[in-house]
C-alpha cells in the first residue's frame, strides 16, 4: 500500500491519479472530508494531520511506501509555522512509519539558496528563506531516520492548474515590469514532477534534483509569459523594480522569483529514468489559457 500525504493538493491529485493508472493501491491522506472530495475517486481515503501525530497511526497501517507531499509553501508565513508543518510534520510522519520500505519526500531546490554556476545534489545547502530552511531540516530528519529514502529537490512547478502561479500571472497582467537581469531561472512542469514521484516508487535512493532539461534567462521566461497574456513586456533596471517591489511590500517575493537558478538533473536521468516532458512555450500558453478562463469564471460568479 502506498500512502500519499497532501493528496488533495495540486501535485498530490496528479500524483495519485498517475499511480492509480499504473495499478498501484493508493491511500490518500487528507486533513478532512471536504479536502478528500478533490482526490481521484479510486483512492482509499484516510483522514489525518501531519502536525497531530495521534491521527497518523491508522492511516499508516500496512503502508510500505510513503510519498510525502504535504507541506506549506510560503515566503511570508512566520518561520515557526513553516517549521511546525514542514519539518516537525515530517518528523511526526517518520516516527509512525518505521517499518516502511521507502519514504519519498517532496523537497525543494530552495534548500540550495542562490546558485553560482550550476548545482548538482552535492551543492552546498545555504537556503535564503525560512521555507528553504524548513525543507533542509525535514531532509535531515529523513536522512537520520534510518528509513530508506528518496528526496526529490524540485524546482518551482508550473503548468495548468497551478495555484502558485495565479499571483505571478496576476502581477504580470497588471503590467508589473520585468527586471533587466542576466540571471537564469529553472522550473519544472507538473507532468515532469509527477513522473519523478512515480518513477521513485520503483527506482533510486538518495537525493535527486528535478527540473526541466535546461534553465532559461529570467527575462526570456518573463517575456514568454507576458506575451502569452497578450501584454507587451516592459523592462526596467533591476534596482528600479526592486524599489517598486519594496514599496508594494513584495521585495522578498521578488527576490525569490528572480533568484539565479541552474540545477543539474543528470543523476535523476541516470538512476530514475527521469525525462522532462512537454514543450515549454506550449505549456506556458496552456497555463495562461487556464488562468484567464478561471479568472473570467471568478468574475462572473
Describe this structure in words.
The protein has helices at 10-21, 33-36, 79-95, 130-144, 164-173, 190-202, 218-228, 238-247, 251-257, 266-271, 280-300; strands at residues 2-5, 26-30, 44-47, 65-68, 102-108, 149-154, 157-158, 178-180, 184-185, 188-189, 206-210, 216-217, 235-237. With 301 residues, it is an alpha/beta fold. The chain has a single domain (2-217, 253-300), classed as NAD(P)-binding Rossmann-like Domain (Rossmann fold, 3-Layer(aba) Sandwich). The strands form 4 sheets. It has a 7-stranded parallel sheet, sandwiched between helices. Helix 1 links the parallel strand 1 (2-5) and strand 2 (26-30). It is globular. The model has no long low-confidence stretch (mean pLDDT 92).
The CATH class turns out to be Alpha Beta
H/E element sequence: EHEHEEHEHEEHEEEHEEHEHHHH
Number of separate helices:
11
Summarize the biggest pleated sheet: 7 strands, parallel
Labels describing this entry:
two-stranded parallel ribbon, 7-stranded parallel beta sheet, about 300 residues, Rossmann fold, about 40% helix, alpha/beta
